[in-house]
Design brief:
There is one protein chain. This protein has 10 helices and no strands. With 229 residues, the protein is mostly helical.
């Protein structure tokens, strides 16, 4: 998990620098920044989603995953967790939870996260995650300057999610079909597109509730390969 640990450290360092800039960032530049990030996130999500090969499976995964997330009230639990951390720290930033969840989704839904964590789990290389660390460093500087210290704490779910993929792959010890990787990436792309609507303030969407879709797409593609190929 060397790549993931370095990635988490990069986010902590970048967010700390961003917190210094936050004090002097005029509101008009903050608005421009989030418009740019929102548009870029929309483009990135669209590009990732184009790689899907089983559109119906992706659709079913998003629907069932969204139903599951809503049923267990995943978004509310994340909000309560963010509020609890904020209270524990005696922090008054109103955008703490937004910063945490936005940064987590941006840092963990990309194809570099999934492919990089799988490569490291196989013991091949950490190069992709090290490259991602550099990108996340600069992204966390800008995100923290706009959303505050919640961005810094996104390193915790990143460790759990990205590190969890690496550990799972290392334990399983078998090659993962490329179709599963491509469909996970496609679902992640759709989630990023939804996040972009929030960043652009087009429509407030409960994106966190869609996270179980990542589990369902793995299950559906595995069933397809196992019984229909």
């Amino acid at each position: 998990m060397v790549g993931t640990l370095i990635n988490a450290s990069a986010i902590i360092a970048g967010s700390s620098i961003g917190m210094i800039f936050r004090k002097n960032l005029p509101k008009k530049y903050e608005i421009i920044y989030f418009q740019a990030v929102g548009l870029f996130t929309l483009l990135l999500g669209f590009q990732m989603a184009l790689g899907l090969s089983s559109p119906l499976l992706v659709l079913f995964s998003l629907i069932i995953g969204g139903f599951t997330g809503a049923k267990i009230k995943l978004d509310e639990k994340i909000d309560r967790l963010g509020d609890a951390i904020k209270t524990k720290m005696k922090n008054e930033n109103e955008r703490f939870t937004e910063g945490l969840t936005t940064a987590f989704l941006l840092f963990c839904m990309g194809s570099m996260t999934i492919v990089g964590a799988i490569e490291e789990g196989f013991g091949k290389t950490s190069d992709l995650l090290l490259t991602k660390s550099i990108l996340d460093f600069f992204s966390s500087v800008m995100l923290a300057s706009g959303l505050g210290i919640g961005v810094l704490f996104s390193f915790v779910p990143l460790l759990l999610f990205q590190g969890g993929i690496t550990l799972s792959v290392s334990i399983i010890g078998k090659d993962i079909p490329s179709e599963i990787i491509s469909e996970i990436t496609a679902v992640g792309g759709v989630i990023l597109m939804g996040l972009s609507f929030n960043l652009l303030q087009i429509k407030e969407m409960k994106i966190i509730n869609l996270l179980p879709s990542l589990v369902f797409i793995c299950l559906f593609v595995w069933l397809k390969i196992r019984f229909f190929s």
